[in-house]
């Protein structure tokens, strides 16, 4: 291994694998290492035995759960917006040829005391029970404005400057009430909390537009999900990197990392490699990150679909914070047998949120109440780490932890920022790419 590389990547989490693939496509010589024996790191998909090893100290799964190999359970639950950044990355790199996707059956929002389908078009808004009669027309006007809005076409702006006007002011202009604002901000714009209300309205409008564009693609929901779990994503990008010359090593403990003559030096099992830059998940550099909070995730195994979802085989449910007296939303993502993640007759519902109290699991009670009987559950509380620096000085580029959001937009934004800091240029996502070496 005693070689020099353009980049050494530590950890095979989703972010690290995407960056490894993107750098390899750019012609960079990449060495990718992970102390684990499987791809995915924090964003892996585990079978039942691996799940019990992680959460139950190696206890054996009960027979009632079925065959362990039928399970591919995500540690970090997320769906993919069909017009979002991740789809653009998949098309840009042509990684789609390694993956199969299935459309998620429905998207719901909780309004005390029950869940309702999320309306995302002017027509759906008019029939939604989420709003009163007069509110529906105000909401329809808002959706029409958003759908017609084009940042570079002032004729669509209605004389409003969304770069200076706050989202709170825009909602007030359309005379929208608090409950309607709640579902637009949290179920369509997909914000974790209400901080966005006092920021320029442009980003929120673009987020609602993205949701509507994604919904238009498949009509039943804006989300897609990869067959066999999210763990397929890092593996697909790892394969992309390998095609372009990237070197992968699993089960490779990192003994020492040092810095000499502007180069990064990594030692492992008597071997040494150097690189111009190093990319890593936060676990490899605990001294270079800070803990800014915690995320709780609860993996729940069910014997039936989630009630009140029209027996959906897959769905997302968002519980906006104000509906349950919180500061941040609670997310539920449900998938099942058609996605090749569990045996027939089982359903995997994963609940996640940002921790706000000293009793994190109690915070999930509103979500548990919606799920029906839970056969088994596996709970984790993870710190949320952010890097202390941008990596420009020491050439150590560290990704942020995975947040509680139910989609990949913030994850992909972090990838694009790291890419720009390393290569000193924006990642331009082009979906009409020339053939790869493998295809040639």
From TrEMBL:
Q: Which one Pfam family would you cite for this protein? A: GDI
The record's listing under SUPFAM superfamilies reads: FAD/NAD(P)-binding domain (SSF51905)
Q: Look up the record and report any one GO term of the cellular component aspect.
A: cytoplasm
A Gene Ontology molecular-function term? Rab GDP-dissociation inhibitor activity
**GO biological process annotation, one example:** vesicle-mediated transport
The Swiss-Prot or TrEMBL record describes its family as follows: Belongs to the Rab GDI family.
Q: PANTHER family this protein is in? A: RAB GDP DISSOCIATION INHIBITOR, RAB GDP-DISSOCIATION INHIBITOR
Protein name from the UniProt record? Rab GDP dissociation inhibitor
- Organism source for this protein? Heterostelium pallidum (strain ATCC 26659 / Pp 5 / PN500) (Cellular slime mold)
């Amino acid at each position: 291994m005693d070689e020099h590389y353009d980049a050494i990547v530590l950890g095979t989490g989703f972010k690290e694998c995407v960056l490894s693939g993107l750098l390899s496509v750019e012609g960079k010589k990449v060495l990718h290492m992970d102390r684990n024996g499987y791809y995915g790191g924090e964003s892996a998909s585990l079978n039942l035995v691996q799940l019990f090893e992680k959460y139950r100290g190696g206890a054996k799964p009960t027979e009632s759960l079925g065959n362990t190999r039928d399970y591919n359970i995500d540690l970090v639950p997320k769906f993919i917006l069909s017009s979002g950044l991740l789809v653009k990355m998949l098309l840009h790199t042509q990684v789609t040829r390694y993956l199969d996707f299935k459309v998620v059956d429905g998207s719901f929002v909780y309004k005390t005391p029950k869940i309702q389908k999320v309306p995302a078009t002017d027509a759906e808004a008019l029939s939604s029970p989420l709003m009163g009669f007069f509110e529906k027309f105000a909401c329809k006007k808002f959706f029409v404005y958003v759908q017609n809005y084009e940042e570079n076409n002032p004729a669509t702006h209605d004389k409003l400057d969304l770069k200076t006007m706050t989202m709170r002011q825009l909602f007030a202009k359309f005379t929208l009430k608090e409950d309607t604002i709640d579902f637009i901000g949290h179920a369509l714009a997909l914000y974790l909390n209400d901080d966005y209300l006092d920021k320029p309205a442009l980003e929120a409008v673009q987020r609602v537009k993205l949701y509507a564009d994604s919904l238009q693609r498949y009509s039943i929901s804006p989300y897609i999900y990869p067959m066999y779990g999210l763990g397929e994503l890092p593996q697909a990008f790892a394969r992309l990197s390998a095609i372009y010359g990237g070197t992968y090593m699993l089960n490779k403990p990192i003994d020492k990392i040092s810095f000499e003559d502007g180069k990064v030096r990594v030692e492992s099992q008597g071997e040494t490699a150097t690189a111009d830059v190093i990319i890593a998940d936060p676990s490899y550099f605990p001294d270079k990150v800070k803990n800014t909070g915690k995320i709780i995730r609860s993996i729940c195994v069910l014997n039936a679909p989630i009630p009140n979802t029209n027996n959906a085989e897959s769905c997302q449910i968002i519980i906006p914070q104000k509906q349950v007296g919180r500061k941040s939303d609670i997310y539920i993502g449900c998938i099942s047998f058609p996605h090749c993640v569990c045996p027939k007759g089982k359903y995997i519902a994963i609940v996640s949120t940002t921790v706000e109290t000293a009793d994190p699991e109690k915070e999930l009670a509103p979500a548990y109440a919606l799920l029906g009987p839970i056969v088994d559950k596996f709970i984790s509380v993870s710190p949320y780490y952010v890097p202390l620096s941008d990596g420009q000085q020491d050439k150590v580029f560290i990704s942020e932890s995975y947040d509680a959001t139910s989609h990949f937009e913030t994850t992909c934004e972090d990838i694009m920022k790291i890419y720009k800091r390393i290569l000193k240029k924006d990642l331009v996502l082009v979906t009409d790419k020339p053939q790869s070496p493998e295809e040639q």
